[in-house]
Structure formats: C-alpha cells, structure tokens
Amino acid sequence: NMALRELASLEKYLGLKKPNKYSTQGDKKVPVLQNNNAPPLVGLVTIACHLVKEAKRPELLGDGAEGRAVVQQWLEYRVTKLDSHTEDTKSILKDLNLYMQDKVYLAGNQLTLADVLMYYGIHSVILDLAVQEKEQYVNVARWFDHIQHHPGVRHHLPPVVVLRNRLYTSRHH
Amino acid sequence: MTKEEANGATEEEQQAQSKKALKKQQKEAEKAAKKAEKQAKLAAEQQSADEDDFAKDRYGVSAMVQSQQKPDRALVRVEDLTPQKVDQLIWLRARVHTSRAKGKQCFLVLRQQQFNVQALVAVGDRASKQMVKFAANITKESIVDVEAMVRKVEQKIESCSQQDVELHIERIFVISQAEPRLPLQLEDAVRPDGDGEEEGRATVNQDTRLDNRVIDLRLPKTTTSQAIFRLQSGVCQLFRDTLTKKGFVEIQTPKIISAASEGGANVFTVSYFKSSAYLAQSPQLYKQMCICADFDKVFCVGPVFRAEDSNTHRHLTEFVGLDIEMAFNYHYHEVIDSITDTMVQIFKGLRDNFQTEIQTVSKQFPSEPFKFLEPTLRLEYTEALAMLREAGVEMGDEDDLSTPNEKLLGRLVKEKYDTDFYVLDKYPLAVRPFYTMPDPNNPKYSNSYDMFMRGEEILSGAQRVHDPQLLTERALHHQIDLEKIKSYIDSFRYGAPPHGGGGIGLERVCMLYLGLHNVRQTSMFPRDPKRLTP
C-alpha cells in the first residue's frame, strides 16, 4: 500500500523513533491510525499532519496564517486532484509548471509537508516522462529534483534522473 | 349527347385545333425569323470584329507541335533576360504563372523553373483589344511562345527573379494549354506549413502534393522541390566523385534474386516464369562477391526494396541505396575511416556548392545548419550505453537501440560534442546479421557500426565474415537454411580478403542533411505500403 509506505518514509524523515501501526479501511485502503483514547485518525493528509505535530516540527505545516493555508491547499490538491485521477496529467503538469516559475518550494521559502507529499504523489508521473517532456515542464523538474535530493526525504522511491543541460533547445526536433 | 351534337363538337374541336395549330405555326415562324436575324447580326458583328482585329495573326492557340516544321528561331532563357538584352526583339517559351487584365493592358508573369519575368500586352499599334483579352484568358500553367521587346524598367520588379527588365509582347501563342482547374494552387503549396493555419489560408497536405507530383515539383516561387532534388543530384555526384578519386569502381548488381539477402520477412516476391524470385533488399552479397573477385574497392548506386509494413516518416518500400564495400589490410577501422571521409566530402561539397538550394529549402522548412566534426566523432556502444543510462534510460548491455533511444542519444551527443554526424562502433553481436564479424576480444560484441545524422540512423555496416567455416557456423546459429546461401558461402572458399562496408539511403541522407521531417519530401515518386502511384 503506497500510502502506508509514504507514512513510513515520513516517519523516518521526521525522525520518529517508534513506527506506528496502521490499518486500512474501505476499497481505497485509506490509512487509519489508532489514537489512544481519541477517535482514530483517517486519511493520508490527516495522519501526516498529526505525525508532524508529534515530531514537534510545526514549521513543516507552514509559516504564518497564509503559509499554513497554502500548505493545506496543496495537501488537499494532492488527494483530490493528483490521487483521484480526475484531472488529466498533462494539465496538472502545466499548472504546476506555471506555479513553480518563480518559486523554490510550494509554500513559502522552505521545505514543508506540501513539498514532501506532492513529491511522493507525483513521483510515478515524473518517472515516466521522457527527457523532452521533463524539459518542457522545466520548473516542475527543477522542483522535483530539489526535493528528491533533500536529505531524508526520498526513502522508498527510486531517484529520477533530471538532466542539467537542455537537449531540445530549438523548436525543430 | 346526340350524334349531331357529337359531330358538331368534333367539328368545333377540329376548328379550334386548326386555329391552335395555326397560332403555333405562326409563333414558330416568328421564333425562327428572330433566330435567323440574331445569327445574321452575330455573323456581321464577328466579321466586323475580325476586320477590326488587325492583330489576329499575332496571337492564338497554336496547332499541337507535332514536329511539323523547323523554324530558324532561337529561344532565349528567362534567366538570361538582363539589361544587356534591352531593346532586342526576342522569342521565348515559358509557362504563364499569372495573367491579369487591367483596362487596356494585360500583365503576365512568365516562368521557367525558378526564374520569372514580368510581361505586358497593351492595346496599341502591335496589339488589339481582342489580343489583350485573349492574353488575360490564358489559363495558368499553360506553355506559351512569346515574341517580345525587352525593355528596361525604372523601378526594380521585386516580385520577379528578373528585376531589371520587362517584356513588351508583340506575339503570343499557346503551345500547350493547361486545364482551368488545377489540382493544387501553387501559392498554397509554397506556403510554409505553420503560416497557413494562423492566417486562415490553405496549405497543401502531403498526400495531395504526392498525388499531383507533376505540379508539386514545379513549385515556382521558392522552388523548394526543385532545390531538394538538385541537392539530391549533388549527393549522388559527390558520392561517385569522392569514391572514384579514392580508387573505387562502380558496379551494377542484380535486383531480381533467388534468395532473400537480409532475412525472409521483409522481401517482395515476384513471379518468375513458372516459379518465383525476390526483389533485392540490398546489394550485400554481390558487393562481397566482387571483393572476392579482386575488385578491391567497389560501390553501387541502385534501388533497394524492403517489404516492411512501416508507415513512418522515414521508411519507404523502395529507395535508392548508395553502397560501399572494400578490402582492408589489418583493421576494419580502415573501412570506417574511408566511409566517414566520403561522408565528410559530401557534406563539404553540399555546403560549398549548394548554398542556394539549402537556403531555398530552409525558407519554407527552417532548420539548424548541419554540423560535423573532422575527424568524424566515433563512440563505442558501451560509451553510448553509459550516456543513456546517465540520462535515466534503462538498457541491457546487449540490447539494440530503439528509435527513441537513438534520437535521445543523438541529442546527448549534440549537446556534448556539438556534432550532427557520428559513428557508433562495436554493436552487440546478437542484434546484427549473420555475416557480421564477431569482436576478437569479446564474443558479445561485433566489428560493426552504425552512422547517424541528426540522431537518426543512416548507415549500417561491419567487417564481414570472410572465412567459410565461421560463416557457416554463424548462419547455423541464426537458423538460416544453408542450401539457400550455398553460392554465397562458396565465394569465400578460394581465398577471400578481409573486407567490410556499409550502405546509406539517398533519400534519408538528403532529408536529414536539410533537416526535413519526412522522407517523402526527398523522394521524387515515393513508394510506401499505401502508395504505388504516380
């Protein structure tokens, strides 16, 4: 189950010593975490946010009210747009490429949970892109390469090659 | 009704009928009279028109040229209409590119291949208004003979190749009339593909062009097609000249053969009297037999037939192969060097002598100029694998290169070495034909090579197995019926020199040199699984 592997990787990144035991529910195998006496936590994003708080790394959820809102927006985007396959991949890449034109991270000026979960979510798409397509979505590729090289983030996913030099410079190919 | 009444009625009817008939006759008579009057009037007008047409002997549709006569008349070429000829009365034959009446004048543009000139028929003491009308109505592409005075123009005529002069026509005759509806409009065919869509004007699609090649090849204004095929002619000539200078002999090889030379799958079968034969997929076997016959170095230029059901931008079922084969002393790199040097001479010859054609083509089909290194870049297969793996491609050591990987490799090589032409040496043995010499040090590899232009393969070659024993082993390994290649193997039994070679496709080389994207553009009458005409 990809979601469970993501959570395991996230735990490692956060440096949580004791890995949690997760169960799943429903056909979609949504992850569930028993939460002592409180009601169980359901869903990748909910659990991930909980883990971040548990690890006492609140900055990963965003800086300031606006920053936190942007992080939540991207976490929602991950689950509703990316995972659900409701939108065509090309338009997701196009939107993301435009958004990342002038940004290093998805929210604010440092790595947040938004970057990590979007990286996990979009990995299989980027893995299948041809060199030419990675050049076409150059900002997405740049952000992706940056995140996958961030210490401690990658874990369960194979590295994707992103070339530094442009091979397809002119429009004739 | 009583009989009397009936009779009476009939009589009335008859009377009525005869009245009707009379009226009808009268009407018809009137009509006939009117018609006769009209005809008489027309005839009279025509006569007066003829009488008024003082120029009627100076224009018209000529009788079909059936070699009736040998007039003592020199025809001037349009390209020679320069200020030097001003005030001379000349004859020329050209196509009507356009003709446009404007009041008492008719402006024509007369065209010969890529050259055109403005011409004028004006009502005056040489031309009547009927003559001007005639000129304006000549259909486009018709061939005309024209006698005209060459006149200087004050302002350069920008839209014609001959900008300093125009013709004042005194006589004009149609030698061959074109049908009024052309299957494609030349202005549309000449328009660069991208532009048309933007401005809502038509561009002509490839199939229409190919179906009407006779007109498509005329493409006047930019003469793209003419430029392409003139360049192609140059490639052949440079190939022949370079190899002849190197001491190669041109040979001709048979195209109807008894056994498929490259493997049974992609070969055309023809009926041969009571049995069957095949169309040659390459001159491979015959080139080699010539080497065994001590020709030392040979080349041949001829058709190659591949029954491959590939509908791609770079495959034809029939194309022109330029093939080389040579004996060498100790190392097959002597062969590679000879081939790459030949290619470089061709590239230089095109660059130095065909700039007009290259520029003409790039106006309609823009591309980067072709780059090459001296000496030619040669990479080993293992190096190429490393480059591809570094770019994220997963490939086994003995895998063949797929077309997308070939193209990616071409990009990586261009980025790293800045060349559009390179050699890839030491291919895995498993993916090469049975007659390829294995590498002496590593049985997984072979003494074979491919050459690439702009990332696409243009030549496949190798050192050939010249030992009959090894050749037999390799054939068995590839599960080839030895009976079918008995005479081929026999040619190596009586002393055979070590040798190697390769073959290129003329159309593909032209396409890639010019940076075009479809091999049909560089094949005059292309053949593919869906096209057998014209």
UniProtKB/TrEMBL annotation, chain A:
GO CC, any one term: nucleus
Domain GST C-terminal: 50-171
Coiled coil: none
Taxonomic superkingdom: Eukaryota
InterPro entries in the cross-refs: AIMP3/p18_C, Arc1-like_N, EEF1E1, Glutathione-S-Trfase_C-like, Glutathione-S-Trfase_C_sf
Any one biological process term the GO annotation gives: positive regulation of DNA damage response, signal transduction by p53 class mediator
Entry-linked PROSITE patterns: GST_CTER
Pfam families reported in the protein's UniProt record: Arc1p_N_like
Matching Gene3D superfamilies: 1.20.1050.10, 3.40.30.90
Protein name: Eukaryotic translation elongation factor 1 epsilon 1
Organism: Poecilia formosa (Amazon molly)
Automatic annotation (TrEMBL), chain B:
InterPro entries, per the entry: Aa-tRNA-synt_II (IPR004364), aa-tRNA-synth_II (IPR006195), aa-tRNA-synth_II/BPL/LPL (IPR045864), Asp-tRNA_synthase_2 (IPR004523), Asp/Asn-tRNA-synth_IIb (IPR002312), NA-bd_OB-fold (IPR012340)
Subcellular location: Cytoplasm
Keywords for this protein: Acetylation, Aminoacyl-tRNA synthetase, ATP-binding, Cytoplasm, Ligase, Nucleotide-binding, Phosphoprotein, Protein biosynthesis
GO biological process, one term: aspartyl-tRNA aminoacylation
Enzyme Commission number: 6.1.1.12
Stretches for region Disordered: 1-53
GO MF, one annotated term: aspartate-tRNA ligase activity
A GO cellular-component term linked to this record: aminoacyl-tRNA synthetase multienzyme complex
Enzyme class: ligase
Amino acid composition bias (Basic and acidic residues), ranges on this chain: 25-40
Chief localization: cytoplasm
Aminoacyl-tRNA synthetase among keywords: yes
Domain of life according to the entry: Eukaryota
Domain Aminoacyl-transfer RNA synthetases class-II family profile: 229-534
Pfam families recorded: tRNA-synt_2
Recorded catalytic activity of this chain's protein: tRNA(Asp) + L-aspartate + ATP = L-aspartyl-tRNA(Asp) + AMP + diphosphate
Subunit structure: Homodimer. Part of a multisubunit complex that groups tRNA ligases for Arg (RARS1), Asp (DARS1), Gln (QARS1), Ile (IARS1), Leu (LARS1), Lys (KARS1), Met (MARS1) the bifunctional ligase for Glu and Pro (EPRS1) and the auxiliary subunits AIMP1/p43, AIMP2/p38 and EEF1E1/p18.
Family per similarity comment: Belongs to the class-II aminoacyl-tRNA synthetase family. Type 2 subfamily.
Function recorded in the entry: Catalyzes the specific attachment of an amino acid to its cognate tRNA in a 2 step reaction: the amino acid (AA) is first activated by ATP to form AA-AMP and then transferred to the acceptor end of the tRNA.
Name the UniProt record assigns to this protein: Aspartate--tRNA ligase, cytoplasmic
Native organism taxonomy: Eukaryota, Metazoa, Chordata, Craniata, Vertebrata
